[in-house]
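quick one, two chains, predict together pls
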Amino acid sequence: MANGTWKIARRGNAQLPLVIVLALAVVLVLVGKAQSGLFDAARARITDWMAPALSQVRAPLDGAERWVASIGDIFRVYEENLRLKEENARLLQWRNTSVVLEGRLRHYEKLLNAVPDPELNAVLARVIGRASRPFLRTMILDAGAVHGARAGQAVMDENGMIGRLYLTGQHTSWVILLTDINSRVPVSIAPGQVQAMLVGDNSASPRLDMLAPNVTVKAGDQVVSSGDGGLVPPGLPIGTVVADGEGFRVALLADAARSESVQVLNFARPRETVPAPVLPAEAAGLKPVPPPPPPSVATGAPKPLPGARRVPPAPASAAAPADPVEAD
Amino acid sequence: MGTTEKLYAPAALRFLAALVPLFCGLLGVVIANIPISFVGGAVPPPLLALVPVYFWCLVRPDLMTPAAAFAVGVLEDVMSGAPPGVWTLSFVLAYALVARQRESFAGLAGLGAVLGFAAAALASIAAAYLIVSVYYWQLPPLGPVVAQLAMTVAAYIPATYVVAWVHHRAVGPLRSDF
């Protein structure tokens, strides 16, 4: 670059032609469209490998961020104190109300013999990385498959839902944020229990989609997860409705940019078991026949016990009904 | 033993030097995709890998081949979390644009050189935007895309000094095709 321009070399002859490489790239896009998880294993492995270094780097960075944030807080500590006192008094009133309502709810559930909500297990995870790219908004957690994290599980901070896991390695997980363009979460809008879909579009406030045409939604309504699909538990707080020029969006309660520790909710509906069949003899109050003892020898025909009587085989009509296959 | 070293050392060094552009491209991907932001995620990271691809596509296209641009794009896809193939195709398209107009790009200097790189970055990011739009069948917001373009162009000047230094120290002295 002595005269301001680059000194360039001749092009080599032994290289893969550009057209072939372009075709390969197009094929990769098409294959990626068909199998979106093409690189997931590699991503999870790389993140697992980077996790210890990320954890080490995050600690001083978090401290620096807190320190920088605290500088601004000093100048508005008085106003913040007044606001918190007022908010605390209001929340105490709401707490008393909620305790009364919760007791009444338990009483009604007991009277109605209602099915209890499934238990939630949570894994506490630390955020070790964040990425805000044009086509992906994600955070990386230090909890993976060995901690019980699974793809699809909901991720919460202390305020509300942040997103869902979409990729889990052994020791790390990637979270797809509610604001990401790939995010779709079924939600319920209270009051009225209006069902809708929360759709991320890489903006700060995801939009409400698939609203029924005759429902009424207004700014300030509360948005919670509806639980449709069974992956995310119902009732997780998400945000409040804000009016957009064209429709409605949701101002999220959670702040994904500042969360340092999150909960990964292990939600699974209890497996429904088929009730044990009641035999007609038991229903009639007769003593049920004990099942025959298992054979003591694994191979060969079981030997009859000493003194036991040989029971003749049951007639075909008394045998268990065969599979309903009709003979030609 | 000494004779053998004299015979084989230059060839081995040439081989290693030929890998430097590809290695720098891969290193740019890794640095840009470390999931840590010093500005709280307010702006997206620059496409650092585009700098070595652009630089050596102009200066040593025999070392920064289309296949090398393809490999750099694949790693960008893996580490950035983008849909598979998006950055691979956009890097190769940008490479094709620069290779086509190589003489024009190489003749630029000063602000013109920055604008030349900005044109290549615009081609790459616009291609990625179009591919993602077709991929999801909706238009993503333009703001983050424009911010990434601005960050990439802003990173070009310091990054190209590093790349030029590496070129003169590791690649340049061993070149023989000029």
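The first helix of chain B runs from residue 2 to 32.
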